[in-house]
Amino acid sequence: MNKAELITAVQTHSGLTNKKEVEAVLESLSAVITESLKAGDDVTLFGLGKFSAQAKPERQGRNPKTGESLTIAASNVAKFTAAKALKDALN
């Protein structure tokens, strides 16, 4: 499902009449989740799951082309854990 299909589906499901409003809500949700993760907070959407930020330490890797050892920098990554209700709905 792409962004346009998601907007249409949310509009149909929610009963909202304006696609621009639905798009603004989805973009705001994305921005709020991103800002919260940057601040180190977790975001829980009940029935859907939990977004969290996870720190990955610096580590050693290899260049697959040359086999040369290299250092992969530390980074933060987004992690999503599905809620039990979502897992149950899929099975």
UniProtKB/TrEMBL annotation:
**What is the recorded name of this protein?**
HU family DNA-binding protein
GO terms for molecular function, please? Answer: DNA binding; structural constituent of chromatin
A Pfam family the protein falls into: Bac_DNA_binding
* UniProt cross-references to InterPro entries, sorted A to Z: Hist_DNA-bd, IHF-like_DNA-bd_dom_sf
Q: Which Gene3D superfamilies match?
A: IHF-like DNA-binding proteins (4.10.520.10)
Q: Does the keyword Phosphoprotein apply?
A: no
Q: Which organism is it from?
A: Chitinibacter fontanus
Q: Which domain of life does this protein belong to?
A: Bacteria
> What are the alphabetically sorted keywords of the record?
DNA condensation, DNA-binding
Q: What SUPFAM superfamilies does its record include?
A: IHF-like DNA-binding proteins (SSF47729)
